[in-house]
Amino acid sequence: MPKIERLSTKRRQRPARRELTDDQKRKAKFYNNKQWKALRQTYYQNHPLDEVQKICGRIRLAEHVHHLIKFDDQADDRIKMMLLTDPDNLVSVTTYTHTLIHTTPELLHEQQRIFLEEKR
After folding, report:
1. Is residue 50 a contact partner of residue 97, using CB atoms and an 8 Å limit?
2. Which secondary-structure segment (H or E) carries 85?
3. Is 117 exposed, middle or buried (0-12, 13-18, 19+ CB in 10 A)?
4. How confident is the model over 77-108, as pLDDT tens digits?
5. How confident is the model at residue 50 (pLDDT cuts 50, 70, 90)?
C-alpha cells in the first residue's frame, strides 16, 4: 500500500493587518451605522434586481446597493449622513455594474441619467 504523506500541520501565518487610512476610517464609520444597515437591507428587499441593467432590458439579481451621489466627498457630516440615508440616492446593482460604475463611469453616464430621471 502506498504511503500517504501528510500535508504540513503548521498553521499559515496571516499577513499583518494593514492600517486603515483616515478616509477609510471615516467611510467605515458611516457604513457601520445602524441606520444605513437597516436602510440598505430594506432597499435591497424592495429592489432585488440590478436597476441599471433593468434599464438596458436585462434582468439580473442585485448584489450591492450603490449611492448615486457620493457622500464621502462632502465636508459636512450632516450632509454625508443625509446622502447616505436618502433612499432616492440609492440604486441596487450587480457586482459587475458596480465595478463599471467605479472604473468607467462614462460608460454608464447616460443610463444613470435616465435612471435618476425615472426615480424622481
Report:
1. yes
2. helix 77-85
3. exposed
4. 888 788 888 898 899 999 998 888 888 767 65
5. very high
